[in-house]
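Same chain as my last thread, 603 residues:
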Amino acid sequence: MCAIAGIIGLKTDESIRKSMLATMRRRGPDAQGTYLREDTVLLHSRLAIIDLEGGQQPMALEWAGERYVLIYNGELYNTAELRRGLISRGHTFHGHSDTEVVLHAYAQYGDRCLEKLNGIFAFAVWEENHRRLFLARDRIGVKPLFYLEHENGLLFASEMKTILTFPTVNARLDETGIAQLLLLGPGRLPGSGVFQGIHEIEPGWFAYYQNGKMTKNQYWKLRDREHRENFSDTVEQVRYLVFDAIARQMVSDVPIGTFLSGGLDSSIITAICAEQEQKEGKRLKTFSVDYLNNEKYFQASKFQPNSDSMYIGIMENAFDTEHHWTVLPPETLCDALEEATIARDLPGMADVDFSLLAFCGDIRQQVRVALSGECADEIFGGYPWYRDPEVREREGFPWAQNTQQRISLLQSTAALNAEEFIRDAYERTCRESDILPGTPALERRMKEMVNLNFRWFMQTLLDRKDRMSMYHGLEVRVPFCDYRIAEYLYGVPWEFKDYQGKEKGLLREAVKGLLPEKVLYRKKSPYPKTFDPRYTELIAGRFREMASQNAPVWEIVRKEKLMEILESTSPWPWYGQLMRNPQIMAYFLQMNFWLIHYHVEIL
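reply #2:
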């Protein structure tokens, strides 16, 4: 994994290039490279995982009368198959990196190469002779790619902070950006960077930039299909896809580990990886996070029915892993508030971000690559809102059932119909869902739910995992994001997914015999948060200090309404499953710090 950036058609000097590269160092601490021709600059900062010597970038290739220059952030999981096909077409390789394969694939197939890639990626190719730039992002959106069309030129980068470093770019927040922060946050509109003018290449899309114009095209989305397999055959296919995806994503020239929560998804990954490592005479390293005094203060709830430690212990013993705990005191969480905001370039998921940032820092001391269980809930229907008929049928985003509270926070609604803003975003996503004609009502709704989660909630989680991990130069792979799993499961009927009335019942059936029974049938529990009252005290103290000041956040947030929300008890979290009052306070503390740190101009 790496960081990439580019400047097309704009004047630069060495100081600008150095400043932009400096923002990329954390994502790519091992090496940096620059391509410079006239008014075209490509920048790369590398985290070396595969072919440590031969994968240097920018990487160039002359083929069929064109010279291609590539900068690439990602990991390819079908490198060997692609390389064999390219060799049969006359290509010669000098190393074994996936970077070189992606470059040759683009030279051979053009944008159709994307249909052949199985991996997580964001990359750019400059065609020297045609003076044309190609940008692409993976199907699911695991790796980020932002851009800004600016003064008849283009800036692009893995992270927005790199674009904002360019001297003539200012951080501006317009009405739509404010609406995203308050009405949708920490989610954001697909393709939006929240900052005015900054956009994102959406998952499954590519773009060309030439002669000052950008054209964008979609090459992948979830497509419905008639599901003809019976339940038994479906179980076998799911088992094959899951096992194959995990095995493919173990490829690495450096040691790997796994996140382990004791939940179904991370335990499946850990079990398969541990068995493979044992075959090679190795012991898998596993990693878990907890909070100081959690056993004392933990409170079971509808969304978090039990803590993780017992289930982690069962997995550790069953698979003889080399287990590592990160135990975080409340002070460490609070201290990470500012750093987590910088890592994400936006206010995020509060202490869920803070803890993950600190956790990834610890993991990086042991391994450079770790596998994690994100996206299984979106694909297999594991979240509570998939299975609660009342929430499922309600209009609006199911992970944010507090629309009126959010609307009440807006300082100005003169030119914005807040309810319409939220409704349009929600309904547009539902309309975009690909559903076969004649699909029964429940099945139709479940496909809409999958697409809503895919386009919104999952993207927030993938943002979080990418930024918090790459801030420490840790590559995190997400096997359940294998597009083959997503494609297949989208067409599988809800009756199969909800087998025996259990959340992710189909997935549990597919991995029978792999996991200890207690883990296999453990009720879903989300990423853990702290219940320590000391954390609430620390955050509340910071919040009171901010509330007593003429802080920038009060330019966009109605202070008295926020205080009312914090003094009340809502049946629904602010976002997702865990953001209650301490997390709401932390979110707005992040927002205030963000406005100051990024020198945000409010329009």
